[in-house]
Amino acid sequence: MLFPKKVKHRKWQTMRKNPKKVGSATRGVRVSFGSHGLKAMAPARITANQIESARKAINKCVGKTGRVWIRIFPDMPFTKKPAEVKMGKGKGDLEGYCAPVLAGQVMFEVDGVATPAIAIEALRKGGTKMPIKTKIISRI
Fold first, then answer.
1. Where are the transmembrane segments (predicted)?
2. Rounded distance, CA 5 to CA 17, Å?
3. CATH architecture for the domain at 42-81+92-138
């Protein structure tokens, strides 16, 4: 699983945003490294477990010759209170790390496969592991 080596603050504030005012990404919207990419169609927080399961699914389909780039990194800590605990008594314990993703951001890229159909199928399988709708794009 991915997680940062060191963080300045152990717990972050939630960073809530109005869903009507959340914009789309301006950086990381094009395929830069590979030939095909997996793009997020909605804003979300992608946990480290979800990134890892998508990476495994993509790598299994791509094979040894293919190369996979992960364009997002989970550096934002999130907390959770235990089950059946009353309200109050402070913030919960650290549960894990997540990557905030905006709509339009490229999350994974693939290159070095025999045919484009293999890359598209690999990214489709990786997209099923994500909690949001995704789109497969190719380099122009």
1. none
2. 27
3. Alpha-Beta Complex (3.90)
